[in-house]
Amino acid sequence: MILADIIWSWSVDGWIMLVGSLCAIAAALLGNFLVLRKMSMLGDAVTHAVLPGIAVAFLISNSRSSLPMFVGAVIVGILTALFTEWIRQFGKVDEGASMGVVFTSLFALGLVILDQAADRVDLDPKCVLYGSIELTTFEMVTIFGYDVPRAVSVLLPVVIINAMFVGLFFKELRICSFDPALATTMGFSAKLMHYLLMVLVSVTAVASFESVGSILVVAMFVVAPAAAYMLTDRLGVMIGLSIVIAVAAALSGHVAARVVPTWFGYGSTTTAGMMAVMAGVLFAFAATLSPKHGVVVKWIRRQLLSVQILCDDIVALLYRCEERSSGMPLRSDLSEQLFAGRFYLSAALTMLRRRGELAAEGELRLSEAGRDRGRKLVRSHRLWEQYLVSEASAETDRIHDKAERFEHFTDKVLRDRLDRATETPDQDPHGSPIPRESHPD
Amino acid sequence: MGSRNSAPSELAILSWRIRSAKPGGNGRCKHGNARWASGLHRCYAFLAGLVLIAVPTTLSAAETRSLTDHSVHWPTWEQWQRVIFLQDYNTRLVVFGVAVLGAGAGLVGGFTLLRKRALMGDALSHASLPGIALAFIIATKLGADGKSLPYLLTGATLSGLFGVAVILWIRNHTRLKEDTALGIVLSVFFGAGMAILGVIQNMEQGNAAGLDGFIYGKTASMRLGDAQLIVVASLIVIAVCLVLFKEFQLLCFDEAFAGSRGFRVIVLDTILMTMVVLITIVGLQAVGLILMIALMVIPAAAARFWTDVMWRMMACSMLIGTVGGVIGATISAVFPRLPSGAMIVLVCSCFFFVSMLFGRSRGILIRYVRRRRLNRRVERQHLLRAMYESLEPSERALSFEPSLSASIEELLPMRSWSRRRLLKAIRMAQDDEMVTLRGTEAHLTRAGFVEAARLTRQHRMWEMYLIAYAEIAPSMVDRDADAIEHVLEPQIINQLEELLEKENTSSLVPVSPHQIGVAR
Question: For the whole model, what pTM was predicted?
């Protein structure tokens, strides 16, 4: 087993995974609302834009202690959200563009400030912006007699605050995200919720990237909630799922960072990067295989439906042939008349034979069950045609296409209603007889 | 009713008709426009002067503040000269390269902005990292120099294109929106890039140092090769965009229509995105991530304030990108310790804010002026109609006499307006010579009377139209007509006249279909 070759240490790997998970949870909690409000890029913007805040805080306090920097970064983070909103509102600029203007300008401002004070400041923007999760255990603090990494002592309160925010204001957040106008009429300010959310996003982004690096928090803001969104339609479930996915990505990300490079004969790699990649992998699974919205699942469902419809068409065609007592068509006639590809045709025929609606072997011939199904389809078709002409006053030469589509989802109840509405006709507008619901004898 | 003397009011209506038939409609308003416009121009000139004076002073002031422990060295004239006349080889290269890049990025950025994909450049430049890292590994394994530009550029381009494909796939095939697609690609690709870079650091062969510098750029130390690359890429991008200008225009504004006209939307979209990738990747390694994103977004967003015409906007965006690049690079060359990339971004964002405030087409100032002008007209029209309607029942109205007047007490209940607002409206109407105020009595002038009769007629015709054709109850029509009367155009009035001909043409200002006044 490959895992056995690597020495795992709970006091290092355990803390790293814990810190990664905390960061993932904190970001994913808020990320749900960012994704729903179409503000997914805000996390990225905030992590870039806080540079001047850090730089100014450093210049004022003249120390590298993190509290002033944290405060400065959070203030600028909030300003980023505020400026973006203002430019969007007053300048009527598209949200993404206003975000782009604000965060590039702020980042540039930060660079200029840092460069101006370069000889007094030993501050590399990359170091400030990109903390490293691997170094988590190098900085320990003592809280209530326990030695914990500093990152945990920062991230745990953030997680608790975010969870409380989402828990307490769940209803308000939900209404604000889906219908701000309704929220306003119900008497609570959608704007206030928006800015509260922005404050927490800034706090979370700053707290996370300072200890674990920016890419992880950006990924967890967007990717985990997006994956959850593919899986469910309910907000509560979505938040829960996004947390599960985020934690799974964090844990598997660290394992992958240690393990995957060894397959190619290298050492380990960046944990934060692998966590983002694992989140992407989980998203890919969700996006393709989600039972409801997954792309592959939807594709398969569409193929099954088209085979189903082809089955209907074959049965109806054979029924009509029997009705006219013309000879039974050959397989090649079917594919020609129904525009069916070879693969779909054989799939449909196999399905019909298995369900006993087509004679098992030899030439194409309906069984009793198949004839029953065909009769119902043809009856639906002709009733619809009659209905369209008599009730919707459609022209006779334009009704066939519509009836051809409707016949596939017309059940007995609907057929009876059509029958009543058209006063139980014997013939459809083209003069063909409308078969009875059950066999005459 | 019987005592209505129709001859003078007929004259009034006739004169109104003639006036409304003139192009430009209302003569008095035009005069107001001209006055406003010249005021606006003076305002612009003043502000421009202010900026010219203020910018250098604040710049130097800011410098003094931030460098308290340094002596401020304002560059000497020779230094200025060297930079402005491009005597330094390096400055020349940087200014030239950035200018061309600004033009190319400004053009492409215009299209991405209009397609609401302004942050595409952001996502792309992050998405290029894994390609760079992989290209380095492969090149090193093959025994070549992993840091040679062609390998890295190829890797970055391929990975950028893959990123675009994933973004389009997510947008088109899942229920997620564009912004989420951008966020996913940005973070996951960048994460993958970091992971691969982490691996490279453990490799024995090859020196990975500075590889991530590829996406952070180094504007000030641009080399000839970089500049040449930028020029070639920018020219390709500009040429393609100009050749396909019409197609891209359709793509930006009406994708479905473009499809129905037989353009292959997917192909066009792919070409546009390829151009984005090309300019981003080439710019990325020359000037860095943030500057590249800024050059894609800011000039285009700034240009949008100035015009509604597509080609003008594109030209404006290219111009802002170029000028911003040149000024930023110049400032950074003249003053010590100002990073050129950051300065270019800041200059561009200054342009953006100036454009946002003063843009001729969508700027905040011009929108405010337009709104104020409209409000003013609406208030005046409300006042005139209220006066006409308050005069009407007492049979004093319907022909002009100098003594026609309504007291403020009479006018107050006509609408739900405060005394202050009413007085303000009267004052403004006085400026327009529609009304004269003597004591508490407001007198209509001849012009005011004509205008009031016209407005009342318009209002009532719309009410009658609503009653006759939209079958709305007479008690409900007043509010609708009140909202629409300010924007009715002469053609519409003509149509209304034709439609309502058989209804009621006996009186030129028709009788109101409902009671008048607030208390009804």
Answer: 0.80
